[in-house]
Queue: 4 jobs
Job 1
Amino acid sequence: MTTTLSALAIGGQVGTVLPLLTAIVQRPAWSAKAKKVVAVVAALLAGIVTVAADGGWTQFQHGQLTAATLTGVLLASQTSYDLLWKPSKLAPWIEALTTRKGPQQAG
C-alpha cells in the first residue's frame, strides 16, 4: 500500500509532464476557459490512471490515497504549466506544431 506522501510524489511527477501531453490536443485558437477545462479533465484522468497503475484498481478503496494522487497530479500540472512550460514557450510551441492548417492557412 502506498503512503500519502508517496501518492503525492507520484501524482506530482505525472502532473509535471502532463501539460506537454495536453498541449498535443489543445489548439492555440481555443479560449482560455476551454484550455483550462481540457487541462483539468486531463489531470483527473491522468490521476485515475496513475492510481490504478500504482496500486491496481483495488487502490481506489483507499480514498485518502486516491485523493492525494489526484490532487498531486492536478496541482503539479497547473503549477508546472504556469511556472515552467508556458514561460519556456514549449507547451504553446507543441500546440502550434500539432495544429492542422486548413487550406486557407497553408502558406
Note: Helices lie at 4-25, 32-55, 63-85, 90-97.
Job 2
Amino acid sequence: MTAKEELLIVRDLSKALKTTEREIAQCRADIYALHATDYSKEKLTGGTGSDISDKVAKLLDLLEKANQEWDVLIRAKIDVKRKISLIDDLVLRAVLIEYYILGNTWEQVCTNMSYSWKHIHRKHSQALKAYALKNDI
C-alpha cells in the first residue's frame, strides 16, 4: 500500500460515514412524515401502508452502522495523525492534515494555507514522500 492509498482510506471512511448520516436524516424525515390512518373513512385508497415499527427498526440499524463507522474512522484518524506527526516539516504536516484528516477540498486547502494550487500540489507531493519515508511505506 502506498502512502497516498493509506491516507485516502481516512477520506473514504469519512465519506462513507457522511453517506450513512444522510441516510439517517432521510429515515428520520420519513418517520416524521408518517400520518395516522383515518379509520372513519369507508375505503382507504392510494399508497402503501407504512408501519412505523419498520421505519424505527431501519433507523436503529442505521444508527448502529454509524456508530461502528465512527469507531473505525476515529481509530484510522488517530493512527494516521500519529504517522503524520513524525514528519518534521510543519507545512507538509499541515497539507496532509487539511486534505486527508479534515477532508477539505484542494481549493479549501489552498485558501486555508494561503498558497497557490500549484504550490500546494508540490507540497503535497513532498508530504507524501516524507510520510512514506518516516513510516517505511
Note: The chain has a mean pLDDT of 91.
Job 3
Amino acid sequence: MTEFTLHTAQTAPEASKPLLAKSEAAFGMIPSLHAVMAESPQMLEGYQQLHKLFQETHFNPEELTVVWQTINVENNCHYCVPAHTGIAKSMKVDDAIIDALRDGTPLPDAKLEALRDFTLKIVRDRGVVDDAAVQAFLDAGFTRRSVLDVILGYAQKIMSNYTNHFAETPVDKPFQKFAWDPAATKAA
C-alpha cells in the first residue's frame, strides 16, 4: 500500500496552505480527507470548488444527502459515509432518510427514492443511462438541470471516494460515532 501524508498547515505544500485554512474555517478542523488531498493543491482546490458548487444547486438538504450518500455507499467509502452522516445531521436531514441511505433500505419518500435510483443508474452504468430511466427521473419531478447536477455531485464524490480508497483516510473523531460497515448494508 502507498502511504499518503495527512498534511497540516505546517507540512502542506505552500499552495495548499490557504486551502487548508479555508477547510479549517468551514469545518472547525482540517478534515482528514482534505489533509490527504493537500498533497495536490489542485486536487484540494478542485474538490472544495465542486463541493461549494454542488451545495449551490437547486437540491435541498435531503436531496444533496441522497446524491452524496447513494454514491458513498455504492462506492463503499469507509470515510465519506460517516462524514456525510454527520453533515446530514448538521443539515437537519431526517434520521429515517439518513438510515435508509446507510442501510440500503427504501427511502420514506418516492421522489427521494427516484433520485437515489437515478443516481445509482449514473454510477453503475457509467453515465450511459437509457431514455426510460431519464424519463422516470423527470416524471418524479426532477428536471434536465437535475440530471446535470447529479453528475456534478458524482464528480465531487469520485474525488473523495477514490482518494479515501487509495489513502485509507482515517475517519475524523467527530464522525467516528457514525462508523459504517459496508458488509452490513449488503446483508440488508
Note: DSSP finds ten helices and no strands in the chain.
Job 4
Amino acid sequence: MSFPLGLLAVHRAFRAGTLSRADYLAACTERADEVEPWLKAFSYRVSPDQLDVAGDGALAGIPVGIKDIIATAGIPTTNGSRVYADHVPDQDAPIVGRIKRLGGIVFGKTVSTEFAWRCPGPTVNPHNRNHTPGGSSSGSAAAVAAGIVPLALGTQTVGSVIRPAAYCGVVGFKPSFGAIVRDGVHPLAQSLDHVGVLTRSVEDAAFAFSLLADASDASGSAPIADVADDVPAASSLRLGVVRPPNWDRVSSEQNQAFEQALDKLRRAGATVVPLELPATYWQGFEAAEIILAAEAAAIFDPLIARFPDRTSPQLKELVATGNAIAATRYIGARQLQAALQAEFPQHLSGLDGILTAPAPGEAPEGLAYTGDASFCAVWTMLGVPALTMPIAVSAHGLPLGIQLVGGHGEDTRLLRAARAVEAQLAN
C-alpha cells in the first residue's frame, strides 16, 4: 500500500473493500514502530493487541492521535506534566467518546508541551530532527506528518494547532470557539481554549469537522461542513490579504512563498485584495496575553504551590505574570475581546476569508523553543476559524504554510474556500 493515505482516502477504501481495516492498522503500527524511536510523537501508545477494528460509523477502523491534555478512559493522560505522570482518567472527554462512537480507534496519546504551555516535550520535526515541530500540539502534528495516523486532535490557546501544522507541513484547522466541545480537556485559559484537528488535506479536515463539531456547547457553534460539495471555482473567491504590523518578522522565504501563492490565486481568477484592520486589532495580541496569563494563574497557582518541584519555570513565570495583572486590566482585555468580536464581521463583509502567514517562516532550529505564535494570537482571541496548509519548502527542506481565517460560525464557508485555495496551490 502507498503511504501515507489521507483520512478520506482510507474511509473510502474501507467502504469500497479495497483496503482492510486490519491491514491498514498494521501498516500504521509498523510505521510508528519505524519512526517513533526518534520522532517521539507519542507519550503513550495503545498496545496493538488492544486496538479494535470492529466498530461501526464514519471513523470505523481509523486510528486517531489524541493530544495528551484530552482525557481518555483507562489510558494515561499526563497533560505533559510530571504532576500527572500516573494519571489515568475514569472517563473519556466527550470528543473522545464521539470518536469512539464513530468507530475511531484511539491509537495513543500525542505529546503536548506541559499543560499546552511553553515547556516542550521530546518530539522532533519529522522533516528535520534538529528543528522543533512547534507546540503545543507537537506530537499530533508530527504523527500526522510522519504518516502514523491520518487524524489527530490538537488544542489552541494562542497558536498551538496552526503553528505546529505549518512547521510540520500538514493541514491544521482550528474551528470557531466552542465548535468542538472542550469538556474533558485540561484548560489553559477558558476564554481562549479551542479544540482542533490535524490532517493531511483540507478535504480531510472538513470531513473530520463534519463529524466532530457539536452545537451543544453553549459558548459557540458552527455549521457542519459538507465535504460532498464540489470544490468552488477559484474565480468565485474573494479573499482579503492581511499583513499584520509584525510582518517584518516574516522570513524572505516565507514572504516569497506567500507572494507566489497570492499570484497563483490571482492568475486562477480569484479576487485577492489588501485588507487593513484597525490598530485596535493588533492591541488584541496584548489583550490575549493578559487574558491567558490571568486565567492560567487562577488555574495553576494552587498546583505550583503544591508541586513546586514538578512544575516548570515556564509555567511558574506564566502564573507569576498572571498574578500581577490587576483585575481592571483583565476586565479591560475581556471587554476589548468582546468589542473586536462584535466588530470583526463588518471587516469580512463580502470576503470568503483572509489570507495571512501562520508563522514567520520555517520551524526554528532546536527543541527548546516551539516558535513564534504571534501570527495566530489575534485570530484565536477573536474565536474565529483558522486553517493552515503547506504551500512550499524552505532551503532547509522544512515546510512553509499559508493561513486562512474566516468569520465566527462560518467554518463551512472557510473550509470550502480553503479547498479551492488548496486545489490551485497544489498545481
Note: The first strand starts at residue 42 and ends at 45.
